[in-house]
């Protein structure tokens, strides 16, 4: 896959901008992580600082989404100022950001996997990222998502792939493995529609691992998100952020593991993961039932 080739020799850690593209998110510790005044300009500056630091450290994969507030805009402006760099950019569609730049919003994002939403959001993404977009994924697919059954959408996605953009999906929830396996079976003209998978895997919730191995064996790019469990593993005694990320990097099916750092110190600590040799089995007793993990995650406050 061209993306894998382009990332050869780069850090296997990617930088996601979910935590700095909008003022509210579900990561722990945000009160200390972000400026007191979370203005657009303050977070634009923070995003730029993190992108500079990550690039200097060898990071070449950057992750954004339509629902991450202004993350696509921040990344696009950073790229426009550096026209000669070669990085891989992934974004996602399927959620619409609705918080209006407010932390205390009643609803932060609305999910819709319809063809109409794809057409609208791909236009919005394209207006910002243009030819820089390498990977476009459906955001948080579950087994009941209409995106897995909509033939008209599949044709549109195949058209996009023929233009050189890798088409994939991210997953969430206790049925991630089922969603991935269903997606692997979606074909058009005998060819698979989805060529990448981004899923939550961490020491608390590793159940999707076998399905990600199947996706990798099928030739998909595999990206790990939330390896720190929204910060819960970063503060857990005996684990910490670098170990948690190293455990994800240790998985033979993992091509990219995302850092969601909100500060330069966090990013530097996250990047230490590549220097660590760990045995994930040492922390096997941390795993909890998927239903419990996702219930607890759903109760994390937007701060």
From TrEMBL:
<dbReference type="InterPro" id="IPR053135">
    <property type="entry name" value="AKR2_Oxidoreductase"/>
</dbReference>
<dbReference type="Pfam" id="PF00248">
    <property type="entry name" value="Aldo_ket_red"/>
</dbReference>
<protein>
    <submittedName>
        <fullName>Aldo/keto reductase</fullName>
    </submittedName>
</protein>
<dbReference type="InterPro" id="IPR023210">
    <property type="entry name" value="NADP_OxRdtase_dom"/>
</dbReference>
<dbReference type="InterPro" id="IPR036812">
    <property type="entry name" value="NAD(P)_OxRdtase_dom_sf"/>
</dbReference>
<feature type="domain" description="NADP-dependent oxidoreductase">
    <location>
        <begin position="45"/>
        <end position="234"/>
    </location>
</feature>
């Amino acid at each position: 896959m061209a993306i894998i080739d382009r990332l050869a020799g780069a850090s296997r850690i990617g930088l996601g901008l979910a935590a700095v593209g909008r003022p509210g998110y579900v990561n722990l510790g945000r009160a200390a992580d972000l400026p007191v005044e979370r203005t657009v300009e303050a977070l634009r500056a923070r995003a730029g600082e993190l992108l500079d630091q990550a690039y200097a450290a060898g990071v070449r994969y950057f992750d954004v989404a339509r629902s991450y507030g202004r993350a696509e805009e921040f990344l696009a402006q950073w790229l426009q100022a550096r026209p000669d760099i070669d990085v891989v950019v992934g974004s996602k569609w399927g959620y619409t950001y609705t918080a209006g730049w407010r932390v205390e919003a009643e609803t932060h994002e609305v999910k819709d996997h319809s063809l109409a939403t794809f057409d609208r959001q791909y236009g919005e993404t394209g207006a910002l990222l243009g030819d820089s977009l390498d990977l476009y994924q459906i955001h948080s697919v579950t087994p009941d998502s209409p995106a897995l059954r909509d033939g008209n959408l599949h044709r549109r996605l195949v058209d996009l792939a023929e233009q050189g953009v890798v088409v994939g999906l991210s997953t969430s929830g206790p049925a991630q493995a089922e969603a991935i396996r269903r997606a692997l079976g979606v074909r058009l003209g005998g060819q698979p529609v989805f060529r990448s998978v981004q899923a939550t895997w961490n020491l608390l919730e590793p159940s999707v691992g076998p399905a990600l191995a199947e996706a990798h064996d099928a030739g998909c790019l595999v990206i790990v998100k939330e390896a720190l469990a929204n910060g819960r593993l970063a503060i857990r005694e005996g684990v910490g952020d670098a170990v948690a990320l190293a455990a994800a990097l240790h998985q033979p099916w993992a091509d990219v593991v995302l850092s969601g750092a909100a500060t330069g110190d966090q990013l530097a600590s996250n990047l230490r993961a590549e220097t660590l040799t760990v045995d994930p089995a040492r922390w096997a007793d941390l795993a909890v039932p998927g239903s419990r993990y996702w219930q607890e995650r759903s109760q994390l406050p937007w701060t």
